[in-house]
Amino acid sequence: MKLGHMIGAGMVMMVGGMLLAWSLDDRNAQASVNPSEQVQSSEQTVAGFSEGDSKMARSQSAARATFDQFWQRVSTDATGLDAISIKVAVPHQNGPEHLWMTGCKSADAQAFNCFVSNKPVRVSLELGKQYSFERGAISDWMYRQDGKIYGGYSIRALLPTLPVDQAEAMTAMLAPLPQ
């Protein structure tokens, strides 16, 4: 399989995880970066990025820098929002696996309790099970409103790796980033 197709498949799986997150989202908004290889399981292909991937590192930094805006929005009034998700770096011996989480709750926006909403490949978590983490583990965030995806910094970092038609379709779903 060509590398471009494998990365595209990884994007499809990431989007599949987002769709699953949207379906699992309970609107309660109280609200992989791994070695640069493709990981294949019987059910999915996951695009991997090296720990030093500069595009993904910038996307994570931007997501963390705007997290307070996201949290303020989703924790005060989630009316009309869905797919409220936080992407989290879950530790693994071979490097973290980044998973989307939904149904997140936090008393102080520092410690979170959420539900795993993509099927983990490397870590021993289960889809739909609760997972607790500290704010420092957050690598992305997103929500959907009026059919547009807000946030989704890691999605944007992957766009150049996709076939043009897939990148254009995904770009059409993305809202402008917060300032």
Structure overview:
There is one protein chain. The protein is of the alpha+beta class. The protein has one domain (3-173). 34% of the residues lie in helices and 27% in strands. It has 5 helices and 8 strands. The chain has helices at residues 3-24, 54-65, 67-76, 153-158, 164-173; strands at 38-40, 45-47, 81-90, 97-105, 111-116, 130-134, 138-145, 148-151. A 6-stranded antiparallel β-sheet has the order 6-5-4-3-7-8. Strands 1-2 form a two-stranded antiparallel ribbon. It is globular and about 35 Å long. The N and C termini lie far apart (39 Å).
Entry summary:
The protein is of the alpha+beta class and 179 residues long. It contains 5 helices and 8 strands. The strands form 2 sheets. Strands 6-5-4-3-7-8 form a 6-stranded antiparallel beta sheet. Strands 1-2 form a two-stranded antiparallel ribbon.
Class by SSE composition: alpha+beta
How helix-rich are the residues, as a percent range? 25-40%
String of helices and strands: HEEHHEEEEEEHH
Strand order of the largest sheet: 6-5-4-3-7-8
Alpha-carbon Rg, integer: 15 Å
Output the number of helix runs: 5
The profile of the biggest β sheet is:
6 strands, antiparallel
Strand elements, count: 8
Residue stretches low in confidence (pLDDT < 50, at least 5 long) are 1-47
Overall pLDDT confidence: 79
State the shape: globular
Query: Ends: how far apart?
Result: 39 Å
Estimate what percentage of residues fall within beta strands.
25-35%
The tally of structural domains comes to: 1
